[in-house]
């Protein structure tokens, strides 16, 4: 029996995660809420073979520590990270054995982003619904909007600056656009583009779970 623990719920809801990988035959998959400090010390008692860290708390509780992750890896557990807290920790520990996956991880690993603020969001602690938009997602969308000719590079820089300077719990597209100098037509066009853009953190979460699936099936 291969046992897998995956911390998610925010970047990818549990039901959508189970559509990709769920318990069956000789595989047991346990989906848990965003990881916080101390969780690994308790959950290692369940003897997992693989741990996937997607979401984690930043400010509501203490974040999962590097030593905690190193400790479970020393026990032979494979640890993967993506999307949010997982991407951040993987970029810090990839040289020591933690494997990072996806766009957000690559942004950290390349040095394009270097702060936990880039993936931090305000969430509803009960429903795990995101109440703000992570900076890394906004910059991803704005960058693609430049490629599509919807906004200029200068306008993208203005939007990114506004987003960066906004405290993460209040960071939303509506708030950013309201402070920008974009005219109403361009704002409307950009809003339409935002609505059809993929959620990069969700895509990374899906990629991590799919990667684990290929390892065990």
Largest sheet: 5 strands, parallel
The helix/strand order is EHEHEHEHEHHHHHH
Strand content: 5-15%
Q: Please count the beta strands (DSSP E, at least 2 residues each).
A: 5
Tell me the number of helical segments per DSSP (H or I, 4 or more residues long).
Answer: 10
Q: Whole-Å distance between the termini?
A: 12 Å
Quickly give the structural class: alpha/beta
Q: Name the overall outline.
A: elongated
For the record, the CATH class of the largest domain is Alpha Beta
Please indicate the count of domains.
Answer: 2
Note poorly predicted spans.
none
As a whole number of angstroms, the C-alpha radius of gyration is 18 Å
The CATH architecture of the largest domain can be given as 3-Layer(aba) Sandwich
- As a percent range, the share of helical residues equals 40-55%
Q: Let me know the average pLDDT.
A: 95
Descriptive overview:
The protein has 217 residues and is of the alpha/beta class. 47% of the residues lie in helices and 11% in strands. It is built from ten helices and five strands, in the order βαβαβαβαβαααααα. β1 (2-7), α1 (14-20) and β2 form a beta-alpha-beta unit. The model has no long low-confidence stretch (mean pLDDT 95).
Give me a quick take on this structure.
47% of the residues lie in helices and 11% in strands. It has a five-stranded parallel sheet, sandwiched between helices. It has two domains: 2-114 and 200-216, 3-Layer(aba) Sandwich (Rossmann fold); 135-196.
């Amino acid at each position: 029996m291969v046992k897998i623990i995956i911390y998610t719920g925010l970047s990818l809801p549990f039901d959508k995660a189970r559509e990709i990988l769920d318990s069956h035959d000789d595989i047991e998959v346990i989906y848990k809420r965003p990881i916080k400090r101390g969780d690994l010390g308790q959950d290692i008692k369940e003897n997992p073979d693989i741990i996937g860290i997607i979401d984690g708390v930043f400010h509501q509780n203490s974040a999962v520590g590097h030593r905690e992750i190193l400790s479970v890896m020393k026990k032979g557990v494979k640890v993967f990270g993506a999307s949010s807290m997982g991407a951040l920790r993987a970029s810090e520990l990839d040289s020591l054995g933690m494997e990072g996956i996806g766009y957000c991880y690559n942004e950290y690993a390349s040095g394009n982003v270097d702060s936990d603020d880039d993936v931090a969001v305000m969430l509803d602690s009960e429903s795990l619904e995101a109440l703000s938009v992570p900076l890394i997602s906004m910059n991803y969308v704005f960058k693609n909007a430049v490629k599509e000719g919807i906004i200029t590079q200068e306008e993208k820089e203005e939007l990114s600056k506004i987003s960066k300077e906004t405290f993460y719990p209040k960071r939303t597209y509506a708030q950013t656009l309201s402070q920008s100098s974009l005219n109403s037509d361009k704002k409307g066009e950009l809003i339409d583009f935002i609505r059809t853009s993929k959620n990069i953190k969700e895509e990374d979460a899906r990629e991590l779970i799919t990667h684990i699936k290929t390892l065990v099936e």
